[in-house]
Amino acid sequence: MTVPRTAPELAPALVAVLGGGEVTELRRLSAGASRETWTFALDGRRLVLRRDPPGAPRPVEMAREAECLRAAARAGVPVPCVVRSSGGGDAVGTPYLVMEHVDGESLPGRLLRDERWASARVGLARELGRVLARIHALDPQAVPSLPLVPDPLGVLRARYDAFGEPQPGLDVAFRWLAEHRPPPVAPAVVHGDFRNGNLLVAPDGLAAVLDWELAHRGDPREDLGWLCARAWRFGAEPAVGGFGSREELLAGYAEVAGTSPEAEAVRWWEIYGCVHWAVICRIQAERHLGGTERSMELAVLGRRAVEAEYDALLALGVVSPADAVVPVPAAPAAPGTSRPTVDELLEAVSGFLTDELVAGDDRSRYLAKVARNALGIVRRELASPDPDGSDLGDRLRAGALDPDEPAVADAVRSSVLTRLAVANPRYGSAR
Q1: Is residue 112 part of a domain?
Q2: Please, are residues 40 and 47 in contact by the beta-carbon 8 Å criterion?
Q3: CA dist., res. 54 & res. 429, Å (int)
Q4: Residue 335: pLDDT over 80
């Protein structure tokens, strides 16, 4: 079966699976590295298509997401209404969901900075606490396909080790997590990706909880810690998504659940969330590197892992906001080098992507920014000193070094800051 990839190809496929009508205003949204999101109208009715990318079908996960959305709706959790779901054996050609459109904003930059959303930001952390308590109270029998994850740290460690690419900061964080596990609690339904960017917000508050593809049964404190991870603050200061405090979040949770987890247990899951995001970045990059799905977006995501590694060390106090991420200077042209130099050519292409390229849709404009970032990474990598060949990561993983020793901590700090200077030199001072 040929999978429709463009809007003109996809429109008739949607008409076929939805029983007729006229599809208009079909366009792909910029968000979503793991799944495609399209918005369209069917005879004027506004709908959203969420589907697996061609070549990377995950029918079990898509069916599980549909099951979660329906169960959450019955429990009063704000979610989009599922219109149709399929494992991909029809005209759309890949597993998908069609959902009712819900008005609201999900882009963190707008939610955190635009005046239009100022009223929504007030009290949003408390509201999210209440919603998470409702999710965690869902009857697991209502979502029987959810897998139980009894030892997420063990699973995450195995995935990290499988790449054979020790990163000093992550090994330090893994050791701390193993030594400071909070007491276990009864498993509950866990959203798995509840954070700023997967929440649709209206001017008066939360409109819908999106993206249930990572839902599972496990420790409910995972969702609370994940929401507090620094990656989801997008440059703003408040700990919960950039718009609220941990105290507000837990107070809202207690309003519905009757009690809330201990703050120290949530902190453990916050640090776990930083490590989890670093590993996810590398897993996503492997989809490109392994040939499953060739994607510049996924490839660049692999270099973002060091941001989360930095966040974990920041939470542990190994690095501090005062530690400078020294920008990599432009490489000087050697005598006799042809002009423009490699650095100058990269800057020229970056300028084209930023200032000259006329992109036709949101997705193209977004990918142009990703390409510009990729060129920046290449430029800084070329200008950086050659790596010293240190076996720091291997020795930390083997337990041969004590991360509490000042010299070891200094070496870990230097490793992370050096790689962050190449991947994203502004990240350390962003918030």
Answers
A1: yes
A2: yes
A3: 38
A4: no
